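The step that takes the researchers longest sounds almost clerical: writing a folded protein down as plain text. The outcome of that step, for a single protein, is printed below.
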Amino acid sequence: MTTLLSPAPEPSTAGQTSRWLAGRSFASWREQFDRSGYLIFERVLAPEFVDGIRAALAPYLARDLTGRNDFEGFRTNRVYALLAKSPLFAELAIHPLALAFAEAELGPSCLLSALLAINLHPGETVQPWHFDDGGAKVPRPRPPLGISAFWAIDDTTELNGATEIIPGSHLWDDHRIEGASSLADFAGKTPQQRDSGDRADAVKLVMPSGSLAITKGTLWHRGGANRSDRPRLIITPQYCAGWVRQLENMCLAVPPDVAAGLPERARELIGYSIHPPFMGHVDGLHPRRLLGAATRSMS
């Protein structure tokens, strides 16, 4: 089974990040990340690229499908399976800055767990507090099993629903905080009555369009309330360790013929890869070999 392993990985994506590190070393940013549980890098994306993202999302946002429950948000559009909708979104998933921190934390065999757009409309209320790798029932405190990236397509502000985080909370134990999510938040169309969960130690991820915030999967956070008169749009790629189940079933969400046209690193992230020594094989073969066979049979 050792023949299933991919060739030796390319040099770390950390070497491609210097333009965004403000003269600091990648190691120093990682130390800050370990202390606080989050980072912000302003104006990473060119405005022209952000415009392209808006255009690619426009037909899906025009459907105005809102959340199915209190967690998704009754005044929020969520667009899932983005890799099946435009190759532009792959550029966010494999962006070297976000990916460098994901790989450093989770290893080079990490996977893309989810990739979605979140568009908060005016009047949306706060989400319940949660942490993104909470689906893995491993006792805390522990190292994160996921990393979340938040790409600001719109400016995120104090008023329009900027994501709220609790610095340092990635180090906490299993204690449930006030206003934390529960199964009831996913149960139906009735807004849940809960404590507001407002906290003096919370910080809003305020940043201009084109910026990137990164959080550890164990960091407590929530979507903010939109008290402005305009929507607030972000895109969030979420990564997980190579042995953790993805939130989105990527191999079904992204058809083989679409996956075959993605950059190689994007294909690896959605599951056409192996977590050593052989997790992810298909009938004893590396899945990328099956992808080539599947796409040939469709032609």
User: Anything to note?
Assistant: Residues 1-11 have pLDDT under 50 and may be disordered. The CA atoms of residues 140 and 173 lie 5 Å apart. The radius of gyration is 19 Å. The chain has eight helices and nine strands.
